[in-house]
Amino acid sequence: MELTMDRQRELEALCLRFRREVLTAIHKAQSGHPGGSLSVCEILTLLYQHRMHIPAPDDPDRDRLVLCKGHAAPMLYRNLIEKGFLPADCMDTLRQLGSPLQGHPTNHTPGIDMPSGPLGIGLAAAQGMAIGLKLNGSPARVYAVLGDGELDEGAVWEAAASAPKFALDNLCAVVDYNKVQLDGTTDEIMPLRDLEAKWQAFGWHVIRVNGHDLRALNRAFDAAEASRGVPTVLIADTVKGKGVSFMEGQAGWHGKAIDKDSYAKAMAELGGAI
């Protein structure tokens, strides 16, 4: 799918605005996960605002996305708002009682295809969707966005082992490989070792890509769409807390309330008013 320079600049401007508005919502809620929301920004924004076919949240031939790392929900919600599935002012209600924007996605929110709280279950759910779409002869594609810490879960690898058996070339997994999880780096908690070789050994088409480079990501998704007979995984190298210098690469910002001073510093770096 073509990505013109003008469109790329539009998407880059959206990503900058989404980062500001997501941090604003988390700051107002005094609860949430800034680090992983920022690292997945370009991935979700490119998919929702440029690539995925979603004419309506209930269209049977819509592309599906499962945010397996459900704690990054604020960035997903901001993209759903931009699609027109939710009112713009509901970002102000993040994590409040009665809000459609809960801490993790639920099926009560328009545009959510799969609730995602416990890590490890999303890839299997996405695989089931992909099988169902193939059986129905649908041209739709399914995307599963996983966290790298989530790869510690054995259920991920059960799904990874079975997806190639069913020749699910309509399934694309994306690993938000920011290399930092809740309590430290992935190397400290549970080394993932050669992640490309691991997925290849399970029979997947593997693409390594800069997860913050919209043009490189777009080419990678093109290659995934062109692949036949096997599912594809994009190992997207990202930075936890991308865009805010004091959050970048810091496990402490995995799920931390943003205080007044930190919020002011983040907005200054992102060019936003407070």
What does this structure look like?
This protein has about 270 residues and is α/β, with parallel strands linked by helices. Helices cover about 40% and strands about 10% of the residues. It has 10 helices and 7 strands. The strands form 2 sheets. It has a 5-stranded parallel beta sheet with strand order 1-2-3-7-6, with helices on both faces. Strand 4 and strand 5 form a beta hairpin. The longest helix has 25 residues. The chain is globular, with a radius of gyration of 17 Å. The model has no long low-confidence stretch (mean pLDDT about 95).
N-C termini distance: 37 Å
- Segments where pLDDT lies below 50 for 5+ residues? none
- Treating each run of at least 4 consecutive H or I residues as one helix, how many helices? 10
> Got a strand count?
7
Sequence of secondary-structure elements: HHHEHHEHEEEHHEHEH
Strand % is 5-15%
Helix share bin: 40-55%
Mean pLDDT, to the nearest integer, reads 96
Briefly note the structural class of the backbone. alpha/beta
What overall geometry do the principal axes of the alpha carbons give?
Answer: globular
The major β-sheet equals: 5 strands, parallel
Strand order of the largest sheet: 1-2-3-7-6
